TrEMBL record:
Swiss-Prot/TrEMBL keywords: Phosphoprotein
Native organism taxonomy: Bacteria, Bacillati, Actinomycetota, Actinomycetes, Micrococcales
Source organism (scientific name): Lysinimonas soli
Limits of the FHA domain: 146-195
Protein's name according to its UniProt entry: FhaA domain-containing protein
Coiled-coil spans in chain: none
Length: 236
């Protein structure tokens, strides 16, 4: 599968279902992703034999109608853009000076369907943000231990009779993840393999009952780092 195919597959999670109605016309999210990818490739600078530096701070300028449609999707779309930029950089062996920051900007001078990208290198700390995608919803992992199951006492409750009340736990130490089955009735799988306890690498899929849980880690700019953006990742 090529890089562009991976981008398209990732964006399908964002624009399917009700979101698809938003993009019957005008700029498509995939076009923004392709523009971000081109920006990385164009600005890539070889700084040593084994390091190619690319921008990590992006402003995506959009026409008012396109801006409104994109921002209606909320933070999930920015998260997808961030993850797919991160994947493209990894595939091309690019390096970032700091965490990735992407902000949408409303630009009344642009015609609908046109996107312009402005990017810079911003040195700073990287905040590794783990998230879980479950049934179209995204859950940031904010604690060292997160329990998933059918019961109301679980940190994340899933509506699935094939799961136990406390089915699996996810541990996160700030850099690495681990997943464990909590003695569930029907068991769990990690990337298709029966699970008891195992390391949890990014882009893994956990299966409990009929529920699929995608684990991802986003490299974002730390809130306290120089040049990091605070508040919503878009601006009028």
């Amino acid at each position: 599968m090529g890089i562009l195919d991976s981008f398209e597959k990732g964006l399908e999670r964002v624009v399917n279902g009700a979101f698809a109605k938003t993009f019957k016309s005008g700029l498509q999210p995939l076009e923004v992703t392709a523009a971000l990818r081109r920006e990385l490739d164009t600005k890539a600078a070889v700084v040593s034999r084994d390091r190619i530096l690319v921008p990590n701070d992006f402003v995506v300028r959009l026409a008012p109608g396109d801006f409104a449609r994109m921002t209606n999707l909320g933070p999930a779309l920015i998260d997808e853009f961030t993850q797919l930029v991160q994947r493209h950089a990894a595939a091309q062996h690019y390096s970032f000076a700091g965490g990735i920051s992407i902000r949408l900007q409303n630009d009344g001078s642009l015609p609908e369907g046109v996107v312009q990208i402005e990017s810079v290198n911003v040195k700073g700390e990287i905040a590794w943000t783990p998230v879980l995608d479950i049934d179209g919803k995204r859950y940031p992992i904010t604690k060292a231990r997160t329990v998933i199951g059918r019961g109301s006492d679980a940190d994340i409750t899933v509506d699935d009779t094939g799961t136990s009340r406390q089915h699996v736990e996810i541990l996160w130490d700030g850099k690495r993840g681990q997943v464990s089955d909590l003695g569930s009735t029907n068991g769990s799988k990690l990337n298709g393999v029966p699970l008891t306890k195992a390391p949890l690498p990014p882009d893994s899929v956990i299966e409990i009952g009929r529920t699929r849980i995608a684990f991802r880690v986003l490299a974002q700019a730390s809130a306290g780092a120089p040049g990091s953006k605070r508040g919503a990742p878009w601006a009028d």
